[in-house]
Fold:
Amino acid sequence: MSLTFYPSLLSFESKQACSHLKESTAQSQQTVLNLDRDASQINPVLFREYLEAEDDEKGMIEVSRVSLAFFLSLSLFSSALKDGS
Structure:
């Protein structure tokens, strides 16, 4: 192997590695975009509405969610007491 061949080989390998990295990055970006699109399509309506809502509407949704969660837990606790007695 001549001394002039070795730097050329290193340069070629660097270009190949760079090209491979660019292709891999592009594929990864496309995968993330596809996952985001798929997740957006299967989101429940409530999540979509929340993500698209203004700040004051988000506050109302959060209060409603907390109230609903409290009501459900209270209902489950009440029915557990009735079943236990």
About this structure: The chain has two domains: 1-42, 44-85.
